[in-house]
Amino acid sequence: MLQIVAIVFFAAVIFMLADMNTRRIMRRFVERGCAGFRWRRCFPGASKSEIREFLDIFIDALGFKERWRLCFRPEDRVMDVYRALHPPGRALADGMELESLAQDLQKRYQVDILGSWREDITLADLFTKTRRPVA
């Protein structure tokens, strides 16, 4: 029984340390104010729920907490967020977050972002693609 308690304790400590590290490396994004007004200004025809749904797909694909959803701004470049999470030269393996994002956007909005992917693509660029009517 003591072994199980010790394993659970150490797993909890490891989880907490990993969570603190993720928050530390994502600080420049998550410690700024709510970006909801920026999204509404950039996309006045979009409802709050449409914006939140899109941002939920983004944060889910990258494995972020739901409360970080409105920390990301329309002008944020996807690769800047990705590189903050996976800095060059860091030994951690790629969790295929960008691939998951592309698949999730394809599944929800029937858009192929891979065909128009650019190194400097922003969240606003991706959201714009989700707003186009499917032909």
Please tally the β strands and state the result.
Answer: 0
The main pleated sheet reads as:
none
Strand portion = under 5%
Question: By helix and strand content, what is the structural category?
Answer: mainly alpha
Order of helices and strands: HHHHHHH
Radius of gyration: 17 Å
CA distance, first residue to last residue: 61 Å
Total number of helices: 7
Work out the count of structural domains: 1
Stretches with pLDDT under 50, minimum 5 residues: none
Q: What value does the average pLDDT take?
A: 84
Approximate helicity band: 55-70%
Morphology: globular
Give a topology summary.
Layout: H1 2-25, H2 27-30, H3 36-42, H4 48-62, H5 78-85, H6 97-109, H7 123-131
